[in-house]
Design a protein that fits this description.
- With 137 residues, the protein is α+β, with helices and mostly antiparallel strands.
- It has helices at residues 9-13, 33-39, 43-46, 61-72, 119-134, and strands spanning 18-22, 28-31, 77-84, 90-101, 107-116.
- It has a five-stranded antiparallel sheet with strand order 2-1-5-4-3.
- Strand 3 and strand 4 form a beta hairpin.
């Protein structure tokens, strides 16, 4: 596969935030219009699907393992993620994932909000993720 084109995140976000919600297993239960626009998927294609439908193959498994352990413990996870669009292009986002809780404090799902990542942060984390990915078996 050749060099894949990156999206101009600042332009496509236009000051809006991507928001999605998932159930406890990571299946999408809500996707806002900006998420559909940027990912290239329709709402119908996203709802009910695992959130990793947009996972870029460059993302190391360890990054998501840390995210899951953090949010399943009731904490907020923050990090940079490289996502893959339906058309094969990619985009980087600064992501915050937090647990949704019921009135008894039980986790019922997760909410993620994403905005464009800063170029310098992308360069720094790309190197870290590459090393993590290279050490995967």
């Amino acid at each position: 596969m050749g060099q894949v084109e990156a999206l101009d995140e600042e332009y496509i976000f236009q000051g809006r935030v991507i928001v999605s919600e998932t159930d406890l297993k990571g299946n999408i239960t809500y996707a806002n219009r900006k998420f559909c626009e940027i990912s290239g998927y329709s709402k119908e294609e996203l709802i009910g699907k695992p959130h990793n439908i947009i996972r870029h193959p460059d993302m190391p498994k360890e990054a998501f393992a840390k995210m899951w352990s953090t949010i399943q413990s009731g904490q907020i996870w923050h990090g940079l993620v490289k996502n893959l669009r339906k058309d094969g292009k990619f985009y980087w986002v600064e992501t915050e994932v937090l647990p949704s809780k019921d009135e008894n404090g039980n986790i019922t799902g997760y909410v993620a909000a994403r905005k464009p990542a800063v170029r310098q942060d992308i360069q720094e984390i790309s190197e870290v993720y590459k090393k993590m990915k290279d050490s995967e078996v």
